Amino acid sequence: MGCTQGKCCLPRPPGRGSGGGRGRGGATLGRAEVPGAGLLLEYATLDVAGLYPDSPGRESQDAHLVATRFAGDPDLHLFAVFDGHGAAGTACAGFARDALPRLLAAAAGAGSLAADPAAAFREAMLGANAEMHAAAGVDDFMSGTTAVAALVAGGALHVANVGDSRAVAGVWRAGRVVAEDLSWDQTPFRADERARVKACGARVMSVEQVEGMRDPESEGWVPDEGDPPRVWARDGLYPGTAFTRSLGDLAAEAVGVIAEPEVKSVEITPAHLFFVVASDGVFEFLSSQEVVDMINSSILAIAYRGLQNRKVAMYQDPRDACSAIAAESYKLWLEHENRTDDITIIIVHIRDSEISGPAGSDKVDCGSIGASIAAHTVQSEIPVFVPPEASHLNRCAATEMQSSSSGSPTERSLSCVVPSPTHPLLIHGRISDASKPMRSEQAASQVQPWHQVDGGTELERPMQ
């Protein structure tokens, strides 16, 4: 869902997108150690170009980034997705993909990323937005990109979001895996965001309301049914964005579409099994819980009693989950419309480096999952584990998990460090020193050059 000016402009079948043809359905696979927290991340990425019958040669407007050992620090790992829209959406997404890690790396070198991750993300995204406006080669007047970035920093996870792409964690709670939203879609469906843009002079209406087919004063929009509410200038039929925050979109800034992110920080507990970062091509017709259920269907976590109740949990390659989610999203798009959006997904399994299974394989029931790390801090002295050679990932039958809705932002456990200024229920707080990203003495202050991989950007080094 984007603007009326061109994001929804359509699919090659899954596997023929820009995923590069490696692995399952074009998905790529990687691993990264987090020595300061004794964790091992195994991640997969997949991007599938949308199907646009009226524009068969149209390139994908999505971009993604994986930067392991970010800024030379073995405990920092960055995963991000950018969803471009408008005539110059591809250029906008690519520009943001290159600018954001550079600006964050500068913050890491200056120490501000470790001292205040939320403030560093805010400055980096606002800086990328300003640079995009000034870039001679990018016309962002009626084009832009959403951005969602997840930074693993030792035993903490920091997620910054601008727009309607999304990050979600799968956590073990009360005997099942449930979705914990790590970001909140910033769209006119949200009353606080709707009020904010209206205060800037915007009109909020669906296309049908603009065309006089429905009462323009009605706010009875229903998600996933019909055209969504959009942001319009008071005196013109533009920009028509279905989101209230983005990078770029210079014309939309005049009516309150801003580049300031909302940032959520959580402690990575033993119950956190994985997280996913994806464009709204995935979440347009799939809920957070449905996506988590599909990822979990590729995991068989087996708990044994005795021997400290921690045994190996076997699970399939995360590329399988990427391919399954992309295929289901693609199918649902074609059931609802005659096109599909671009689909980009990153799945990151979180494993204890000292055992072969994921971090939650002991199935502990953490009632405080999602609580603010300002209250539940990461241990300041975590032993460093060097993982053995990668164990073989066995294929197992998946246990069936009951699905449920993750709820609205006001129903979720709120641990937002930097919430929307107008959101009344989000908790303001500062991260305790023990929760801040741990810096290695050997961490380089300069970010290494990025290299392009399959339409995204990846920076990887061998594990220690």
UniProtKB/TrEMBL annotation:
It comes from Panicum miliaceum (Proso millet). Its cofactor is Mg(2+); Mn(2+). Belongs to the PP2C family. The keyword Nucleotide-binding does not apply. Its EC number is 3.1.3.16. PROSITE patterns: PPM_1, PPM_2. Keywords: Hydrolase, Magnesium, Manganese, Metal-binding, Protein phosphatase. Residues 434-464 are annotated as: Disordered. This is protein-serine/threonine phosphatase. The keyword Transmembrane does not apply. It catalyses: O-phospho-L-seryl-[protein] + H2O = L-seryl-[protein] + phosphate; O-phospho-L-threonyl-[protein] + H2O = L-threonyl-[protein] + phosphate. Residues 45-350 form the PPM-type phosphatase domain. GO terms for molecular function: metal ion binding; protein serine/threonine phosphatase activity. The lineage of its organism: Eukaryota, Viridiplantae, Streptophyta, Embryophyta, Tracheophyta. InterPro entries: PP2C (IPR015655), PP2C_BS (IPR000222), PPM-type-like_dom_sf (IPR036457), PPM-type_phosphatase-like_dom (IPR001932).
